[in-house]
Specification:
The complex is a heterotrimer of chains A (217), B (259) and C (479).
Chain A: H1 3-12, H2 36-49, E1 53-57, H3 62-73, E2 77-80, H4 85-91, E3 100-103, H5 112-118, E4 121-124, E5 129-130, E6 135-138, E7 154-160, E8 164-165, H6 168-174, E9 184-188, E10 193-194, E11 202-203, E12 210-216
Parallel strand pairs in A: 1-12, 2-3, 4-7, 5-8, 7-12
Antiparallel strand pairs in A: 5-6, 6-9, 10-11
Chain B: E1 14-17, H1 21-25, H2 28-40, E2 44-46, H3 56-60, H4 64-75, E3 84-86, H5 89-102, H6 109-117, E4 119-121, H7 122-128, E5 141-146, H8 149-154, H9 160-166, E6 171-174, H10 189-192, H11 194-210, E7 215-218, H12 221-233, E8 239-242, H13 243-251
Parallel strand pairs in B: 1-2, 1-3, 3-4, 5-6, 5-7, 7-8
Chain C: H1 17-25, H2 28-48, H3 54-70, H4 72-86, E1 89-93, H5 96-109, E2 114-117, H6 121-126, H7 128-134, E3 138-141, H8 144-151, H9 168-179, H10 187-204, E4 207-210, E5 214-216, E6 221-226, H11 230-236, E7 240-246, E8 250-251, H12 254-269, E9 276-280, E10 294-300, H13 304-307, H14 324-327, H15 330-335, H16 346-357, H17 374-378, H18 385-396, H19 416-429, H20 432-444, H21 456-459, H22 470-478
Parallel strand pairs in C: 1-10, 2-3, 2-4, 4-7, 5-8, 7-10
Antiparallel strand pairs in C: 5-6, 6-9
Helix pairs in contact in C: 2-12, 3-12, 16-18
The chains are: A alpha/beta (217), B alpha/beta (259), C alpha/beta (479).
């Protein structure tokens, strides 16, 4: 008998007999309806409480704001999506105050050291956010691969205010995650952090030291 | 864990008083105080002569056959449907929470459940079933309170003691830090793991004396002999009393009584 | 005293709990480090649940876990099927050794020499690092706390915060000695140094090994909860990712995840959510530019299917490994995690470890509790930990003929003298006349009461018998 069969058989032939299946009352997960403005406020408050930074922008203003943010950090370059409109907007902006724009268009194996050592910042889209926990929803794609939001010391994320859900429960149902998950999906709620040394918070332990969210209203 | 919802009985004509073995042998004054508080509320207190111990020491030590034999001897003590009141969260918890499980699959299961359902921790019963009103006759004083873990978590009476004390106008109740942490008694635990228990009680005494008070009251005699015994041995300026003794003394000053 | 990372389960004698506990209690640094940490965690947890109906949420969490356990074999098969469809290879291991072998075989097939690890308590349970090391494969921990503990040659003292027993100064000295960083009390500096050291390792690792917090059967999704990003690195950068998890970690649907996640992070560290919630459903697709080419899941039984047989013990398997029980445990706070000598310390360890190592080996674990109930009160999935401790105490002395003991190694703690004492105690207390006579006589003879009562009077005065029992006073009153 294989281990698989042995384990399943032991579980199926349980000596205590069949187990009752309790009802699960999810009403505690329900929230009173909220407006987008309320959700933005909640999101902002929560993510700022964990060292995230929020900038409220418009479709017209975000590029300029981004340029300011990057300049204030002295970022030498910015990793941008190749296909997503964010990338197009930046490349087509014609601004002289943006740093060098990089794209992630080849397998990681061919430029890993460069990504790990030379890239100062990245910008990605999001699939929305969660107000209650101050979380961003990311489903990495070919255009915006997994490491884009992890390796550079500064991660900038664009969040459409209209895509802000009240809770994780709401978000996964509204976006029907159960119908199929991507190879990797993420909730990101602040910069990388640790409290493993005497409960003292330190940021950027493995991932970005800064998480900056541009909320587009 | 404590019952999510408690349905208190109306104030009864009679109660059974289940004293517990610690009170019987070491703190009979606390038992008398409880009885007199009940009587003052106009309740007839019945003290079943054949009571001994709830069985908890053997139960928590794993000797369930021995615990069951002792518990079985208590099951016949309460023939009328009167409430059973216990001046201890720990022994009350044993009867209220653990008797049904101890007698599961035995002929006494129904009886054990029935008894469990009408077992009450006494201060809870005084406050919420008898709706006692206390008139403070004592001099101004400051005390702290330690609610036993079983009173707090099994019987769900953490708020009862402070509410009763708040009725006493000359008593200032101070709260120690980490009030909800165990004092380290735990029955045989204190003997099996003396260093751990000793570390717990020493910190409990420190937090109590840090409030500036020199006296504390508690719901349970186990905690009382632990905390007060540590303070005495280590010459800390702290004395303890069962809360029932304290309540009776405060409200009966100069009137005599048997306490 | 801590358990060296030799991997030999018998290297440390779990039975030697008492001397380790005594040593910890006598060590002011350990006392202070734990007290400070636990006080902070208790406060944070309380604040994090402030706006929730916590009882309703805990009920939901408990019921989600119970429902998953009720359907456990079906859910495991569904999980396997979905993951296989997604391109993940699923393995089953009866015990820790088999799980280690599976991981090693995958490494060997890939000619892997270095493994980078995300935090995984199951891998600690398997003693994977030691197993791999003995076979020429270097396993490096990447969670900062685990990294520190590994540098020190120790094991975690807490399931969420592995290095909680050390303060900044101790960690600084350790890093200075082992990695050559400057001595510094600047946590930012120490953290940045570790980042630098570990980035190299991530880039060069052949395999990443991680744990799993929830495995979702419906979609074949492995969920990982973390703050540092090392878990994401581990599961993304190396070309092969191996996830190891206990068979009980499966839940039915994604909907089950939201309440459990809300409970887990708040209970563990008082966070609304961790920085990263990483959901992995498959290896890199051909068109994708990063992520591992291979993903494996090792489902580890290691005693769990035995726990599963018993209606009461089964509740142990509800655990979502938040550590709240240890954070609130007055015993754990005093003795720290290493005193237990077990992979899982604290209350959850006391009810879980006896199944993994046998109740003969772990006989002292269930006794190291005042049964104060703080653990059960905060458990996010309402495991009745105190009741399970009493059950295991019963099993360890074969104390219940009506419910015969069944845990491996039961009865090992039954001593002839102790059993006789309880029999005598029971005989007397089951006979009211004897009891009244005996207690009245004791009251008469109270001047002869011994002043020293073993461990009790080491710290306290002996309780004094009253001159008359309450029974006697009530009798007098009637007359």
């Amino acid at each position: 008998m294989t281990s698989r069969e042995a384990i399943l058989q032991r579980l199926r032939n349980r000596s205590g007999g069949e187990l009752g299946v309790p009802d699960c009352d999810f009403s505690v997960m329900k929230r009173a309806p909220s407006s987008i403005a309320e959700r933005i406020e909640r999101f902002e408050k929560t993510i700022e409480s964990v060292h995230g930074e929020v900038h409220r922008c418009t479709p017209q203003s975000w590029v300029a704001r981004l340029a300011e943010i990057l300049a204030s950090r002295g970022a030498r370059n910015l990793l941008v999506p190749a296909e997503h409109e964010i990338g197009h907007a930046l490349r087509d902006s014609g601004r002289g105050d943006l740093p060098e724009l990089l794209i992630y268009d080849e397998p990681i194996e061919s430029w890993q050291a460069h990504l790990f050592n030379e890239v100062d910042a990245s910008i990605t889209s999001t699939r929305g956010g969660i107000a209650e926990t101050g979380s961003l929803i990311l489903w990495p794609t070919r255009d915006e691969p997994r490491l884009m939001s992890l390796v550079p010391p500064i991660h900038i994320a664009m969040l459409e205010a209209s895509e802000l859900h009240a809770t994780l429960h709401d978000a996964m149902n509204a976006q029907n995650w159960a119908s199929g998950m991507p190879t990797n999906a993420l909730l990101i709620s602040g910069p990388s952090k640790t409290a493993d040394i005497e409960q003292t918070l330190a940021y950027g332990v493995h991932g970005p030291k800064e998480l900056i969210v541009l909320v587009i209203e | 864990m404590a019952d999510p919802i408690k349905v208190y009985p109306p104030k009864p004509s009679h109660v059974y008083f289940y004293a517990t073995c610690l009170i019987d042998m070491f703190y009979p004054d606390a038992g008398m105080a409880g009885i007199q508080l009940l009587e003052r509320e106009g309740i007839k207190v019945v003290f079943p002569e054949n009571q001994t111990c709830c069985g908890q020491p053997a139960y928590t030590s794993g000797y369930h056959d021995e615990a069951r034999a002792v518990a079985r001897a208590q099951l016949d003590l309460f023939p009328e449907d009167w409430p059973i009141v216990v001046p201890s969260g720990s022994c009350g918890g044993m009867m209220h929470k653990h008797y049904p499980g101890l007698f599961k699959y035995t002929g006494e299961e129904a009886k054990a459940k029935e008894i469990a359902a009408r077992t009450w921790e006494l201060t809870d019963f005084l406050l919420n079933a008898c709706h006692i009103r206390l008139e403070d006759l004592g001099d101004p004083t400051t005390i702290a309170m330690h609610t036993s873990c079983s009173a707090r978590r099994e019987m769900g009476v953490a708020e009862v003691g402070p509410k009763l004390i708040s009725q006493l106008k000359n008593v200032n109740l101070v709260e120690q830090v980490r009030a909800e942490e165990c004092c380290g008694f735990g029955g045989t635990f204190a003997v099996r793991h003396p260093e751990i228990s000793g570390a717990m009680v020493s910190e409990k005494v420190d937090t109590l004396t840090d409030t500036g008070t020199k006296a504390f009251v508690t719901t349970d005699c186990g905690c009382l002999m632990n905390i007060a015994g540590y303070a005495e041995k280590n010459r800390k300026p702290l004395t303890g009393q069962h809360i029932l003794s304290f309540l009776w003394e405060r409200t009966n000053a100069g009137k005599g009584g048997e306490s | 005293m801590s358990r060296p990372n030799t991997g030999d389960p018998h290297h440390i004698d779990v039975k030697e709990f008492h001397p380790r506990a005594r040593a910890a209690i006598a060590d002011p640094r350990i006392r202070q480090n734990f007290r400070k940490a636990m006080d902070g965690l208790i406060t944070k947890r309380k604040d994090a649940f402030a706006e929730w109906d916590l009882e309703a949420l805990r009920d939901l969490g408990a019921n989600i876990r119970l429902r998953a356990l009720a359907n456990l074999p079906d859910l495991l098969e569904q999980l396997e099927q979905k993951l296989t469809e997604n391109g993940v290879k699923v393995h089953w291991a009866i015990d820790g050794d088999e799980a280690c072998r599976i991981v090693r075989d995958i490494c060997v097939a890939r000619n892997a020499k270095t493994v980078i690890k995300g935090k995984s308590m199951v891998s600690e349970e398997m003693e994977l690092n030691h197993y791999l090391e003995e076979r020429g494969i270097k396993a490096l921990e990447s969670d900062l706390g685990e990294y520190i503990v590994q540098l020190a040659g120790e094991t975690p003292s807490h399931i969420i915060m592995p290095a909680i027993h050390k303060n900044t100064g101790e960690i600084s000295e350790l890093m200075h000695e082992k990695t050559g960083t400057d001595l510094s009390n600047d946590v930012e500096y120490l953290t940045a140094s570790a980042r630098q050291q570990l980035r190299e390792k991530f880039m060069n690792a052949d395999v990443g090994v991680s744990g799993v917090n929830f495995a979702v059967a419906e979609t074949g999704t492995l969920c990982l909860v973390e703050n540092e990003g090392n878990g994401r690195m581990t599961t993304t950068v190396p070309p092969c990712h191996i996830a190891v998890t206990g068979i009980e970690k499966v839940v039915g649907s994604l909907n089950d995840v939201a309440p459990l996640l809300a409970l887990l992070t708040r209970s563990a560290t008082g966070q609304h959510i961790t920085t990263y919630f990483n959901m992995i459903s498959g290896p890199r697709k051909p068109e994708e530019l990063d992520g591992p080419e291979e993903v494996h899941l090792v489902l580890v039984d290691n005693g769990r299917s035995t726990i599963y047989q018993d209606d009461e013990l089964l509740d142990t398997l509800r655990c979502i490994r938040c550590g709240a029980c240890m954070n609130h445990c007055p015993v754990y706070t005093r003795v720290g995690g290493h005193a237990y000598g077990t992979t899982y310390p604290g209350p959850i360890g006391k009810i879980l470890m006896p199944h993994l190592i046998g109740l003969d080996e772990g006989r002292h674990l269930p006794t190291a509790s005042s049964l104060c109930g703080a653990c059960g009160e905060v458990c996010p999935v309402k495991i009745p930990i105190p009741d399970l401790l009493v059950r295991l105490r019963q099993e360890s002395v074969d104390g219940d003929k009506l419910n015969p003991a069944k845990v491996r190694g039961h009865g090992a703690k039954r001593g002839t003298l102790e059993a006789l004492v309880w029999k005598g105690w029971s005989w007397m207390h089951a006979r009211p006349g004897v009891y009244r006579f005996g207690t009245a006589v004791a009251a008469r003879l109270r001047m002869l009461q011994p002043g020293r009562l073993g461990g009790w009077t080491q710290y306290r005065t002996a309780p004094r018998l009253a001159a008359k029992t309450l029974h006697e006073r009530m009798k007098e009153r009637e007359q």
